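Entry 14. Ran structure prediction on the chain below.
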Amino acid sequence: MRILAVDHGEKRIGLALSDETARLARPLQVLKHISRALDAARVAEIAAEQAVGLILVGQSFQMDGLPNVAGRSAARFAEALGLQTELPILMWDEAMTTRDAQSAALAMGFGRNKRAGHLDDHAAAVLLQSYLDTLAQPPLE
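Output, structure tokens:
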């Protein structure tokens, strides 16, 4: 089953896609934010085009475990997305995904300009890979 990950932001929405085996994540694209309803419709359309079975939406949290402002915005986006698709939508902790995407870009030799650019799709890939890695772990006994 393919999985689509969404890194929802105020200005841009990063998307990443898993392979059919749900083991590897790759950046897909960055969408420019228009409005919650239109963004949700575009993500639902991409999910249908890519034949995914699950949409993963990143959500950020405060130190007390409650969603922060961006996390609440992501939850509202997920609700709007749920009105556009029948696919299951799962919220996933996106802690440190942007920083990890920047570190990975540096390790891959991206130049300063590329690293300063929009890595939202790479952040979505980090988010998705963290989810996929939990699927690959054997359950604790």
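The chain has one domain: 2-136. Will compare against last week's run tomorrow.
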